[in-house]
Model the fold of this input.
Amino acid sequence: MPVDAAHGLWRFFPAPGKLLWTPREAEQHGRAWTVEELRRKSWEDLHALWWRCCRERNLLATSLAELRRAKLGFGDKEFANRDAEILRTMSSVKHALTERFYTWQDAADVARSDPEIDLAAPDGQVYRPAAVEEDEDGAGADGAWPSEAGPAPETEPETAARAGLSDKEAVR
Done:
């Protein structure tokens, strides 16, 4: 019976037209991804890796079922080792995503306690500053310290006279 070489069910087998891996091929696989490596990956990468692991586990289950059906007597240990690595990767993906979720929850809690942040803003502008902000060091918006800003302009003639300035100098 002719079968399309691009049929989706071929993805459950090692290669199109190949029913099983040899024991040597089954032993050859990589290591599991670690949580540290996955923390740097994007959501799309983690999503793709998760479904790649699901596909790989289905491929292993198909191969193992065929081995048992044919009573070939090999492959159990190799497939179990390979499946364990895939499960470790899937556990690491879940761990990395759980960390991101808890971090997001903590950030949302901090944002809810900040009066300048409205997470439910109807116009989408979440951050609304209440006033002109100061730098971390206490400097104003112009970058000058309050003591460096200089004296306030004086308008009273008596104050200018007390400072020893003439009327012309006080006007400047």
